[in-house]
Amino acid sequence: MLCSSKPTEDRIKEAAKEVFMEKGFDGTTTRDIAKAAGINSALMNYYFRSKEKLFHSIFTDVCGLFFEGMIQMFNSEIPLREKIEALIDHEYAMMRENPRISIFILNELHRNPERLSGLIGPTKRIIEDSFQKQLDEAIAAGSIRNVNAHHIFMMIIANIQFPFISKPVLQLTWNMSDSEFESFCDQHIKLTKESICSYLFEFQPAC
Amino acid sequence: MLCSSKPTEDRIKEAAKEVFMEKGFDGTTTRDIAKAAGINSALMNYYFRSKEKLFHSIFTDVCGLFFEGMIQMFNSEIPLREKIEALIDHEYAMMRENPRISIFILNELHRNPERLSGLIGPTKRIIEDSFQKQLDEAIAAGSIRNVNAHHIFMMIIANIQFPFISKPVLQLTWNMSDSEFESFCDQHIKLTKESICSYLFEFQPAC
DNA sequence: AATAGTTTTAATCAATTGGTTAAAACTATT
DNA sequence: AATAGTTTTAACCAATTGATTAAAACTATT
Q1: Phi/psi at B48 (nearest 5 deg)?
Q2: Which of A96, B37, B116, B157 is most open to solvent, judged by the fewest CB atoms within 10 Å of its CB?
Q3: How confident is the model at residue B68 (pLDDT cuts 50, 70, 90)?
């Protein structure tokens, strides 16, 4: 039967995802995965042919989760101000649910940039999005400052993802508990919204 | 002799730093290091007792480089606006000289948070800095918006470090050459300065 | 219950890992 | 040049790594 094999295959993938996200590709052994999945270590090679192939499968999924929602948001047809706030809210919610996703993806790409080839599909679409157009129209109308979409994009993701990426350092240097870290993040995305929107919308057109 | 041994010890350290920063602790083998340093692999254990100890030595150095300058800047006695701009300039210069330093440190801490214990000394001082006082005074004087130092700090380092951390993704999704990436960063720190300063200084005190 | 097909396992493989050893090469002092 | 101390090396070790194998356990069809 083909379908009945699903549960174990999925169990392996879920366990592997956990371990890979925590330890990275290099720090993970196939025995770690087998142990986490509660299976014999040979079974991993039965379903996925190698550690590399299993990782690739998981990495593709994780990147999808990481990029898809964001891209949809960018290309959705809502007014600029709401879009920026919705983007920040969405991105923040995603990071709260998957706090390690950012450092995991970015580090694996840093270690092995060729992995990018797999995600050219989903990410490429960021380029040809409607966001720059939306900005250009607002700029032409004089309702916002003249600024490139890439920088707005960077300001958003940097301010949301970086707190999670640097969490261990922050908690040590600022003596933060987990709940204090949470409220710091809450406050920071609020401030990020304000900061970006005030920079964009509240300017002196010709002064 | 004790002093004559320095050159090789340093050569090992320099080579190890390169390899560790590129491949991470888990991705690096002692033979990689020996090869990069042009030495017999046993010599590494002669000078440093183990891979872990060699790494610790390097990690301490790198963290010093990463934090020291920033802390000094924060505690220097210059006016607020200049301080923020100087901080950004300094941080940016440091990242341009050591583009991988951020992802390296943050990932190693993510993988093994205990390594933080070694850098409690240098970083702790960030807490008891004069920056918050400086902000409080400006807030009391009504010259800036009411905002916590932690958030200004986060806005600065997030906007400077994140472009370097996410460089591979950016270059792919936005089809950027190395020089285009550079000018993007130039532009982004300029924008970051403007954005933070305008948020801080240009506000309606009671509107 | 006998069969054929699938899934799971224990045992094992060669390669690589971090680390040790004992001898060699080098350096300086006598 | 003989000595003692340091630095470097080749050879090696046990443990771990990713992966394979052949047999066992399971499942369904006849």
Answers
A1: -110, 140
A2: A96
A3: confident
Q: Does the domain formed by B56-201 have CATH 1.10.357.10?
A: yes
DSSP B33-51: HHHHHTS-HHHHHHHSSSH
Portions of chain A given CATH number 1.10.357.10: 58-201
Q: Where exactly does CATH 1.10.357.10 map onto chain B?
A: 56-201
Question: Who among B100, B110, B203 is closest to A168 (CB)?
Answer: B110
Q: How far apart are CA A83 and CA A196, in angstroms?
A: 12
B196: Cβ contacts below 8 Å, ≥ 6 apart: A195, B84, B152, B155, B156
Q: Are B156 and B91 in contact (CB under 8 A)?
A: yes
**Average pLDDT for consecutive 10-residue bins of chain A (207 residues)?**
65 98 98 97 97 97 90 88 95 97 98 83 64 94 95 97 97 93 98 95 68
Contacting residues for A103 by C-beta, under 8 A, at least 6 apart: A164, A165, B106, B107, B110
Rounded to whole angstroms, the Cα distance separating B153 from A183 reads 16
**C1' of D24 to CA of A21 (Å):** 34
The dihedral over CA atoms of B133, B134, B135, B141, expressed in degrees to the nearest 10, equals 110
Strand D bases, protein C-beta under 7 A? 6-11, 16-22, 27-28
- pLDDT cut 70: percent of chain B above it: 90
Q: DSSP for B148-165?
A: -HHHHHHHHHHHHHHHHH
- Residue ranges of chain B assigned to CATH 1.10.10.60: 1-49
pLDDT value at residue B118? 67
User: Do residue A147 and residue B120 have CB atoms under 8 angstroms apart?
Assistant: no
Q: Are A191 and B151 in contact (CB under 8 A)?
A: yes
User: What is the reported pLDDT for A123?
Assistant: 61
Enter the pTM of the model.
0.94
CATH class for the region spanning A58-201: mainly alpha
What class, spelled out in words, does domain B1-49 have in CATH? mainly alpha
Question: Contacts of residue B109 in chain A, CB cutoff 8 Å?
Answer: 168-169
Q: What is the mean pLDDT of residues B123-137?
A: 78
